[in-house]
Design brief:
Elements lengths: L1 E3 L2 E3 L2 H29 L6 E3 L6 E3 H17 L4 E4 H5 L11 E8 L1 H6 L5 E8 L2 E9 L4 E6 L3 E4 L2 E2 L12 E3 L8 H16 L4 E3 L4 H10 L4 E5 L3 H13 L3 E3 L12 E5 L2 H10 L28
Parallel strand pairs: 5-6, 12-13, 12-14
Antiparallel strand pairs: 1-2, 3-4, 6-7, 7-8, 8-9, 9-10, 10-11, 14-16, 15-16
Helix pairs in contact: 1-2, 6-7
Length: 307
Amino acid sequence: MSFSSGIFFPTAPKMADVWQDCMNFGISIASSARQTILEASKSKKTVMLKSSPVDLVTETDHKIEEMIISSIKEKYPTHSFIGEESVASGETCTLTDNPTWIIDPIDGTTNFVHRFPFVAISIAFAVNKQTEFGIVYSCVEDKLYTARKGKGSFCNGVQLQVSGQEDITQSLVVTEIGTQRKEDVLKTLTSNIFKLLKIPVHGIRAVGTAAVDMCLVATGGADAYYHIGMHCWDIAASAIIVTEAGGVVLDTDGGEFDLMSRKVIAASSRAVGERIAREIEAFPCERDDGKPQGVSGNVNGHPSGEK
């Protein structure tokens, strides 16, 4: 321990213990939330719309987020929060140096509505705009993905490692169409898929949840994932899960990953990630923090985008 002017400051190992306690608490909350989601999946759902006719939200999304945030606030009253449904209801999406929980209560709401079996809870925790840990619970699969900065990535306790694939022509790629249905956006999205298929990559898949998509890269089950238009709560946790499994996380232009930019490539190697960046085009989308695109200074899984 150290003292300055009579004030106690925790040493680095002590602070690391505090963040581990936060992670353990986050895992326990995610486990409880999973049970609520599984029970709700059997019932009739009230479905509402957000930004478009295919951008869905249910009462369970709101219930889970309220449960997660209220539980954390009770234990850590000085911490900050960025939650998908809170932002949709008018809360600001601002990341500060304060310990911040970044929460997607149900990633894959459309899957949840249709009982398609890929639905996840995503919880990330950032301090000084850097991610300390990530938790993704794929509820129906009962797969708990976790990562702690500098400590590796795990699925149900088994350590993860990306495939290490460096040849794009030998790669399986995951992406999503998202909720945008404007003609120019759809042309860009389908053009990107066409370009990759022409390389050719081995195949392209879409699971319906960005959090699980990126975790598949961490497991080595997929070699890359890219998307434009998702939000910070979709990928904050899974970004550190990928990098701690030895992968890379980049912007879609091949530059440094910026969580607030709504553009991401996660890959088994820098070679695969950069090749995808050379092929695909991003359509314009507003940053989560409201800043002009190109203005960064936001959380990264690791500062270099690589473990």
